[in-house]
Automatic annotation (TrEMBL):
Keyword Repeat found: yes
InterPro entries per the UniProt record, alphabetical: NPHP3-like_N, P-loop_NTPase
Residues annotated as transmembrane: none
Protein name as it appears in the record: Nephrocystin 3-like N-terminal domain-containing protein
Entry annotated with the keyword Hydrolase: no
SUPFAM superfamilies recorded: P-loop containing nucleoside triphosphate hydrolases
Keywords: Repeat
Superkingdom classification of source: Eukaryota
Lineage of producing organism: Eukaryota, Fungi, Dikarya, Basidiomycota, Agaricomycotina
The Nephrocystin 3-like N-terminal domain, residue ranges: 356-522
Gene3D superfamilies the UniProt entry points to: P-loop containing nucleotide triphosphate hydrolases
UniProt cross-references to Pfam families, sorted A to Z: NPHP3_N
């Protein structure tokens, strides 16, 4: 993180300084003359400027940073070589505090040779001048990249936007930290990333993947009101400054790896770029700083300590006198008529492990305390087993800690009490009354006036016990927003009653300004439709967008590490358990309980789980899948069942290779007209609890065990499908898409004399002319065919290969940088047994020739 402006009276300590250019004027006019230079800071050699042997300007550009004090000096030694004879010229040192803050320039004189050396620094003033244009560039790039498929190679580069958004957040909330300089450093690295077409190395990919934690911080801050943001950011200043500095270091590494940095430090030349960045240390430190941020972030103006010691009556900023205060109603006698569940509320044993799901919890708590937002209802959406109940429980604990929890209710399907909408109403009324004395008085008066309210129908009960009492408390002022948490709403009542509940919950948040409500639920169709159609401006938090792997690893390691060491498990056992969890907490919990429960050595059970053999883990997931399918597939409608299973098979076959966005999946499957759009749309909507929409776009089933279930006749019964039967249709779709859309010079290149890496706008041309569906078809048609070869497909391949489309396919893969797919695919096509199909001999012969042709030109 960069320091105060040079020469600032507060800049007494060492600070980070950025140099972007070194220029010597006049330039070189002698073609036989070459120049190089050495830069010294505080009399120590810090940078060797490489030789310039061409005429014209003498300018070295790049990124160089060092820690200096206001009294630090800089000097340059310029080397001139003519016909093998060298001479050097030394400049007198100049003090950095004398830099021109507006231009960012410090000038050195080489009086002996009449040269002027200008060293350009990135100061707060120059950063301020450049910042608006670069911020606009970020917005333009974000718009372009928002259309990317979630699994596109470009998506990894796109992660770097989180660093830029974080710096911009610091600029807005902490202007004194000079984060505009950090923003510009990050932008230099991102510009290099966006121009990169080759595969990124492992270190850079690890840096980029680590930025998902920065995204969480930006999301959290985005939930805060303007009034709370600056105060909360100041409380988290230490972690923010540390993150800015750490991301600067990572940006410099990326810049050095992907560009020619003429200002690379001497230490980097000695170590080499491959050894210059310790990515493990970087990621560990980044995680520490993120944890520090979450622990220091507080979305409320009063500190937790101040709130914790406040009396109940101090919850109200101003005392309120209700119209019934003077009555002799025995308030709590009346409230007992509600008959709340006992026990009621949250169970702390179900909370998340300490230190896990911090980003999600902090984001939700911040949202609940934003008084400037009109959003009053939040839906935490996630498939079964994703940890919604644990998150809801931990949320209740945090809200309790700041005295903002007004009530909670944990629904359970099949439970006469916990799955009953009427018990939900009574319990929420009782809990809110226990927390808010003014509301308790209003409810008690309503019950005294009409005791039948406690047992009336849903709408009457809501109107008398919640709506009218809250309307009388509109002017009540609260120190904190009160929050109601309802877990597993999808397990409460039926479709119609859930719509009633949601309507009333939304209305409650509109009646009084100090109430927020958070629900968790699977993405079943009625709740999904409610939020997307009726109240699209309410907040939805998708758990699938938040990686749970680190939390699951912490849980598994905490539960079985001792056992693994004691019984000498294979070294990769915990890694394999984490991978097999697929980000689903329920799987991890069931697997750990099953492994630990044995009275004998646990290794046999571990091996059973890792090999996907039948166990309580598979049994519970089988039951979950069976129940979900029974809810959407009518047993008596064979036609409907067949349509659903056909769609499931197609989604499985395609997502196994590369999940596609919903519109692209439509386009691919509809091209041969086997599955109509309405059927596919309804299937996806009905199966939402089992599907993941990564980044809101690409479709796949939420856990790998679904494929094991649906393709095993013993486990899935009447829902069983043979996956190979559903590979032929995507294969036919791919061939038809390629037959129709491939063409000569598909990207409209002006010349074929340039290699791909020398075409500056190749990516834009690919995005325009080779869309996601055509890319998928080119990449995967052979795999689909091999999984389910048919006579019809062999005939289609024969047609594809006998014309120019085969060469157009090779051209398209070349432009995509995936000629390896053609080589490997054609090899598999030649190797597969096709003798039973007519025309197969010609297909194999053409495939063999095509592969030889590619290999004769291929340069890996």
């Amino acid at each position: 993180m960069s320091a105060d402006p040079l020469g600032s009276p507060t800049s007494h300590e060492r600070f980070r300084l950025w140099i972007t250019d070194v220029e010597v004027t006049p330039g070189n006019s002698d073609p036989n003359c070459s120049f190089s230079a050495m830069m010294f800071i505080d009399h120590e050699l810090v940078c060797n400027l490489p030789t310039i042997d061409s005429t014209g300007s003498l300018r070295w550009s790049g990124l160089f940073h060092c820690n200096v004090s206001p009294t630090s000096t800089v000097a340059l030694r310029l080397w001139r070589s003519i016909a093998g004879k060298s001479r050097y010229f030394n400049s007198p040192p100049s003090v950095f505090s004398e830099v021109d803050e507006e231009t960012g320039e410090v000038t050195l004189e080489l009086a002996e040779a009449a040269w002027i050396v200008t060293i350009k620094l990135l100061t707060s003033a120059t950063a301020g001048q450049l910042f608006p244009d670069k911020l606009e560039k970020l917005a333009i790039i974000e718009r372009a990249y928002n259309s990317l498929a979630a699994d596109s190679p470009e998506t990894t580069k796109y992660l770097f936007k989180h660093a830029l958004n974080f710096a911009n957040l610091a600029v807005q909330a902490l202007p004194e930290c000079n984060a505009k300089v950090s923003f510009l450093i990050y932008m230099k690295a991102w510009e290099q990333l966006l121009e990169q077409r080759a595969q990124l190395d492992d270190t850079i990919q690890a840096i980029l993947r680590g930025l998902t934690g920065i995204r969480d911080i930006v999301d959290i801050a985005g939930q805060a009101s303007d009034g709370m943001l600056a105060a909360a950011m100041r409380r988290s200043k230490e972690s923010i400054y540390g993150i800015l500095t750490l991301l600067e270091n990572a940006s410099v590494h990326i810049f050095n790896r992907l560009s020619t940095n003429h200002l690379a430090p001497v230490s980097l030349e000695e170590a080499g770029t491959d050894q210059s960045f310790d990515v493990e240390t970087y990621l560990s430190r980044l995680k520490e700083l993120q944890t520090l941020f979450h622990s220091s972030w507080s979305p409320i103006l009063a500190t937790p300590t101040e709130i914790a010691v406040a009396d109940d009556d101090e919850l109200l900023d101003t005392p309120q006198q209700g119209p019934h205060t003077s009555s002799t109603i025995d308030t709590y006698d009346m409230l007992r008529l509600l008959r709340p569940l006992d026990p009621n509320g949250y169970d702390p044993r179900q909370a998340c492990m300490d230190g896990t799901r911090e980003a999600i919890l902090t984001r939700i708590v911040t949202w609940t305390q934003n008084r400037e937002s009109t959003e009053g209802l939040m839906w935490i959406s996630g498939q079964a087993g994703m940890g919604k109940t644990s998150i809801a429980t931990s949320l209740c604990q945090r809200l309790d800690g700041i005295r903002a929890l007004a009530g909670s209710f944990f629904c359970r399907r099949g439970d006469l009490d916990a799955g009953n909408p009427l018990r939900l109403i009574n319990n929420l009324v009782h809990e809110l009354a226990m927390w808010c004395p003014a509301y308790a008085q209003e409810v008690a008066y309503a019950i005294r006036a009409n005791r039948r309210l406690c047992n009336s129908h849903f709408d009457l009960r809501y109107d008398g016990l919640i709506k009218k009492p809250l309307q009388r408390l509109k002017s009540l002022s609260m120190r904190v927003n009160l929050v109601i948490v309802i877990d597993a709403l999808d397990e409460c009542g039926d479709c119609e009653s859930r719509k009633q509940i949601l309507d009333h919950l939304h209305e409650m948040t509109q009646i009084v300004p100090w109430m927020k409500i958070v629900i968790t639920a699977r993405p079943i169709s009625d709740i999904h439709d409610y939020f997307t159609e009726k109240y699209p401006h309410q907040s939805i938090l998708q758990l699938e967008d938040h990686d749970a792997i680190s939390a699951i690893r912490a849980y598994i390691e905490g539960q079985v590490t001792y056992l693994a060491e004691k019984e000498h498990w294979p070294s990769d056992s915990i890694d394999r358990l984490c991978t097999m969890s697929g980000g689903v907490f329920l799987w991890a919990t069931l697997a750990v309980k099953y492994i630990k429960k044995s009275h004998f050595p646990s290794l046999p059970r571990l091996q059973k789980v890792l090999s996907k053999q039948k166990s309580p883990v598979t049994d519970q997931f089988d039951a979950l899948y069976r129940k979900a399918l029974e809810m959407v597939i009518d047993d008596e409608e064979d036609e409907i069942k067949a349509a659903y299973l056909e769609c499931i098979g197609a989604i499985l076959a395609i997502s196994e290779r590369e999940p596609l966005a919903t519109p692209d999946l439509h386009y691919l499957l509809l091209v041969v007209g086997q599955i109509d759009q309405l059927t596919l749309d309804q299937t996806i909507k009905s199966l939402n609890p089992l599907l993941l929409m990564t980044d809101g776009r690409c479709i796949r089933f939420f856990h790998p065990s679904f494929k094991d279930f649906i393709t095993n006749a013993t486990r899935s019964g009447r829902f069983h499908i043979r996956l190979d039967q559903f590979e032929a249709e995507p294969a036919a779709c791919c061939l038809q898409v390629m037959q129709r859309d491939l063409c000569f010079n598909i990207c409209k290149l002006e010349t074929s004399h340039h290699v791909n890496k020398d075409i500056p706008d190749l990516k834009q041309r690919i995005d325009t002319h080779i869309g996601p569906v055509l890319q998928y078809a080119c990449m995967h048609w052979i795999d689909h065919f091999i999984a389910s070869p048919t006579q019809g497909l062999v005939k289609a391949i024969h047609k594809f290969m006998e014309g120019p489309q085969l060469m157009y396919w090779i051209e398209a893969l070349s432009l995509l940088g995936r000629i390896d797919v053609a080589i490997e695919g054609l090899f598999k096509l030649v190797a597969v047994d096709l003798l039973r199909f007519s025309e197969s001999g010609q297909v194999v012969s053409w495939a063999t020739d095509a592969r030889r042709f590619i290999l004769s030109f291929y340069d890996p």
